[in-house]
Design brief:
Layout: H1 6-18, H2 23-27, H3 37-49, E1 53-58, E2 61-66, H4 70-85, H5 90-99, H6 105-118
Antiparallel strand pairs: 1-2
Helix pairs in contact: 1-3
Length: 120
């Protein structure tokens, strides 16, 4: 799975949250940024080339929809971060979260319990 630019990721979140859309509908979410229709259309086509979205045709226009789920993307992105910054060790990630107190001991115990239950 290819990496997304910040703007591509932002647009994917809109598809995940709002569902299938035409580019003109997507443009409505960018009233403050004033993104041009052609710019959005180019980004959407790029996302389609990368395999993140697909389309269905309605006359001479396309309605686009997510071809990759948010969960699939999250897993791949986390995997890249773990590989790049944590020596490919999820244990190192959890250790950092515990050390920085982003993950309490109770949350860690609950997580361990969930993992043990899922393996049964």
């Amino acid at each position: 799975m290819k990496k997304l630019t910040q703007k591509e990721e932002e647009i994917m979140y809109l598809f995940w949250e709002k569902g299938p859309m035409f580019v003109k509908e997507l443009k409505e979410f960018y009233t403050e940024q004033k993104l041009h229709y052609n710019t959005l259309s180019t980004i959407v086509r790029s996302l389609e080339e990368k395999g993140f979205i697909d389309h269905e045709q309605f006359g001479n226009t396309y309605r686009y929809f997510a071809a990759v789920t948010k969960q699939e993307y999250s897993k791949k992105t986390l995997g890249r971060v773990v590989k790049k910054y944590f020596d490919n060790s999820y244990e190192n990630v959890v250790s950092l979260l515990v050390e920085d107190e982003n993950l309490s001991l109770e949350e860690l115990k609950k997580l361990i319990e969930e993992i043990e239950n899922s393996k049964k």
